[in-house]
Every structure is written in structure tokens, then in C-alpha cells.
Design a protein that fits this description.
Layout lengths: L4 H6 L5 E3 L8 H9 L4 E4 L6 H14 L4 E7 L7 H14 L3 E6 L2 H15 L3 E6 L2 H10 L3 E5 L14 H11 L4 E4 L5 H9 L4 E4 L1 H4 L8 H9 L5 E4 L7 E4 L2 H11 L4 H8 L1 H10 L22 H20 L4
Parallel strand pairs: 1-8, 2-3, 3-4, 4-5, 5-6, 6-7, 7-8
Antiparallel strand pairs: 9-10
Helix pairs in contact: 2-3, 3-4, 4-5, 8-14, 11-12
């Protein structure tokens, strides 16, 4: 078995964590990943009220007795406010969840030092997803328990420094004395082995979990992801200062054309709204919304269960590391 600081910290079988995915990381997928030996993710912004958020956490606990992450994205949103962010943090402390994946603004700037202390007192492990050494250094100073080194390949919103996983992971490993989790381009045992070789203690992946039997997304979406290749994503919303990597489709082309013409937020919102994306996931409308996936789609070749995925990833990673060691004479 592969043992790392991440498997030891959380008591999980495999050093593989699911990343936050809006509308997709719900209790069933979260629990399935944790039961399979990884660490599932329950994405907080799926829930607009405290009661619904707390119920979702408890629903996961009815489905698994294993630890799981809460995904907390602290980015500008029309639907989710700063008060929501503070509520999510408080509920996570009260429910004593295993860990929180923070992306966007630092949690200490949103919930304050007292909020971070509240979570740490509750035993909640805090990880900040960062795309630069400078942000990793802030996470260390603010008292986080680890960092996600998020390379430019990732789906969602990579930092506009545009540094790749291959470069970023060892840079952050060498710069902070914290467990580092590699993000971006992770989909199989080879990428897990590569991340561990670069000094990471685990990996986080999201796109790969979409093409699993337990992910509650339309089959059209799963089939589309399998059919696509690594060059079939694009960066949108750079003009808003919030670049995002999305699947190349009709809407992402419309967004880029509107940006080229100088269109502002008011014109872009109808194309990139959360409700539009939610409908596309549910109805399989592959051209009707920006579907945030990473370049790792080039390595996704089939729909499998979370257990089969993680078991295979582990065995492949071990085999690849042994193969690499055989080259040492």
C-alpha cells in the first residue's frame, strides 16, 4: 500500500481526494468515493440554507463512516454571499467534518482569524487550493494544514499565473513545510505516481470522477468527456479577471466571442450562470453551458465505479513507480 502524510492524516486507504464540483459533488458521489478508499467531496455552494447544508453533511454520514472533504469556494458569486461562506465555516466546525478544501480567497480573510481558530479547535483540517508559491506561503502563515498545488491544467478556475502541475508541485513542496496535494492533469495511476515522485503526498482530481457510475450527471455528459481529448478545453472569462477552463463547445465559443467584442459581466452572465450549468449537467446538454473540466479528459477512456477507479489507480501507480525504480542501476 502507498502510505503518505495524507493517508495518515485522514486514515484513508488511498491518497486520492475528490475536488469540489458545483452541482455534482453531492452526498451519493461523496460517500461512494470515501467508501472506495479515497476522500469524497461535498460542495458547500450546492446548498443555500444552513438546514440544507447540515442535512447534506448528515446524509453523507448515513452513507459512509469514512472521512470526506467539504468544498468551499470563496469567489464572487451572485447566488452565494459572504454570509453564506461564514455559515458554511461555522457548520463545518459544529459538525466536525474531517477537512475543508478552500479555493479562491483565503478563508482567514473571509471568516477571520477567529473563524480559522474555531475550525482548528473542532479538529477540521484546512487545505487551501493555490496556484503559486506566494499563496502557499500565506496558507502556511495562516495556519492551514496543507495545500493543494493547482496547476494550469485543472478544470474550473486556475490562477492566472498559468503555471503547470509539473513545475508548480515541486516548487511548492520545496517552499512550504506542509503536505502538498497535486491538482491538475490527474486521472490515472501514472499521474498519481508522477505526483508522488514530484514530492506530493497525494492528488486531487475532479473531472475523472464525472465518468463514474455513481456521479449523478446525464450519460450524454459522461460519453462526451470520454470522446474528447486533452486539447479540447479552453480558457474563458479572462476579461472578468476570473479565468476558467471549460470544455470547448458552442457556449464557450460564444463567451470567447463576446469577450473579444468587449462584452461585460451583464452580457456574459446569461451564458455562464450556475442555473444554466446545472440544467446542462442534468439534461445532458453538452453545448448549452460552460462545462468546467480539465485537460485530464484526454486520459478518461471509460465509465467505471469509484471503487474500480481507485483500486486500479493505486495498482497502476505502484507498478509505474516500480518500473521507474528498475531503471536505477
Amino acid at each position: 500500500m502507498i502510505k503518505t502524510a495524507i493517508t495518515e492524516m485522514f486514515g484513508i486507504r488511498y491518497p486520492v481526494i475528490c475536488g469540489a464540483m458545483m452541482w455534482l459533488c453531492k452526498p451519493s458521489l461523496c460517500a461512494a468515493i470515501s467508501n472506495a478508499g479515497g476522500m469524497g467531496n461535498l460542495t458547500a455552494a450546492n446548498y443555500e440554507t444552513e438546514d440544507d447544508f447540515r442535512k447534506a453533511i448528515r446524509e453523507v454520514r448515513e452513507l459512509t463512516d469514512k472521512p470526506f472533504m467539504i468544498g468551499l469556494t470563496l469567489l464572487p458569486s451572485i447566488r452565494i454571499t459572504g454570509e453564506h461562506h461564514k455559515m458554511y465555516a461555522r457548520v463545518c466546525a459544529e459538525e466536525k467534518v474531517a477537512g475543508i478544501e478552500v479555493s479562491g480567497s483565503p478563508l482567514d480573510k473571509v471568516a477571520g482569524k477567529d473563524g480559522v481558530a474555531m475550525l482548528k479547535d473542532a479538529g477540521v483540517k484546512l487545505f487551501h487550493k493555490v496556484g503559486s508559491v506566494r499563496h502557499a506561503l500565506h496558507a502556511k502563515k495562516a495556519g492551514y494544514d496543507g495545500v493543494y498545488a493547482a496547476g494550469f491544467e485543472e478544470g474550473g478556475h486556475p490562477l492566472d499565473d498559468d503555471v503547470t502541475t509539473m513545475v508548480l508541485t515541486p516548487r511548492i513542496v520545496d517552499s512550504v513545510d506542509l503536505p502538498v496535494v497535486t491538482v491538475g492533469g490527474i486521472a490515472d495511476g501514472r499521474s498519481l505516481a508522477a505526483a508522488l515522485t514530484l514530492g506530493a503526498q497525494g492528488v486531487m482530481m475532479a473531472s475523472r470522477f464525472i465518468a463514474t457510475t455513481e456521479c449523478e450527471v446525464h450519460d450524454n455528459i459522461k460519453k462526451e468527456i470520454i470522446a474528447r481529448q486533452e486539447f479540447e478545453t479552453t480558457m474563458i472569462c479572462k476579461s472578468l479577471g476570473l479565468q476558467g477552463r471549460a470544455l470547448k463547445n458552442r457556449v464557450s465559443s460564444d463567451v470567447l466571442e463576446l469577450e473579444r467584442k468587449g462584452g461585460g459581466l451583464d452580457q456574459l452572465i446569461p451564458l455562464i450562470s450556475g442555473t444554466r450549468i446545472k440544467e446542462a449537467w442534468e439534461k445532458g446538454l453538452v453545448d448549452d453551458a460552460p462545462l468546467m473540466v480539465g485537460q485530464s479528459i484526454g486520459h478518461i477512456h471509460g465509465i467505471v465505479s469509484c471503487k474500480e477507479l481507485l483500486d486500479t489507480m493505486h495498482d497502476e501507480a505502484v507498478a509505474h513507480m516500480k518500473r521507474a525504480m528498475s531503471l536505477v542501476q
